[in-house]
Amino acid sequence: MKGDGSMALETLERLERQVERGSLFTHTALSETADRLTEVEAMLYGLIDVVVQRGAAGSAEIHAASSKVRAALDAAGETVSPGVALRVDPEIAATQAFVPVNCDERIPICGGICCKLSFALSQAEVEGGRVRWDLGQPYYIRHEADGRCTHQDRDCHRCGVYADRPAVCKGYSCANDNRIWKDFDKMLLNTEWIEQNFASSLPQLVRAQMQHQDLLAPPSARVKEREGSQ
Predict the structure, then answer these.
(1) Cβ atoms of residues 157 and 111 within 8 Å
(2) pTM of the predicted model as reported, rounded to 2 decimal places
(3) If I label 227, which of 90, 136, 159, 212 is the partner at 20 to 30 A Cα–Cα?
(4) pLDDT digits over 6-27, tens only?
(5) Could you please report the per-residue DSSP string of 42-60?
(6) Are the CB atoms for 106 and 187 separated by under 8 Å?
């Protein structure tokens, strides 16, 4: 029977293998996508040059048409994007005055519910290394399976990196946030909005291509089948 140390080491080795496999897949997919985009870009710009040179359409007309298509794709949620985001804070301070909150009195009621809010980190916060970001949604603040920020103490609901907390947290006040409070003065929570929007944080597929395959076939056969279909 294996000891706790051996089991822990085996678990870490299995996790490392999965992370390595995931990284290899990601790097391969990014490389293939970059190659294809380069080909498409070269062909598209070449085609535009030919169209303009032959007088079939002007550059302004082409730009207007592409902007229209881009807007339609954005509206339909079909824009190709890895979903990576970094927050850029405005240089000028917000005009709305910060309203202090009596957190000691409110935490027993709200449980520090603001730690379930999601936001992108800044470049300085990511590179600082103190604040953890979500590996599945770079570079947003990391949340655990319970939907709460990874840095929130689950016992006292306080921030575990308070001195190094993101600027968003430093400047946030729930006093004017009707998502959190129906009535701030009476400490009446907006339970309907909270229950609807603060579900547990579970892994989700963003997009996947489904295909039929013989699950009983050996892996080598499935690889050949995939290569043959390309």
Answers:
(1) yes
(2) 0.63
(3) 136
(4) 888 888 888 888 888 878 888 8
(5) HHHHHHHHHHHHTTSS-HH
(6) yes
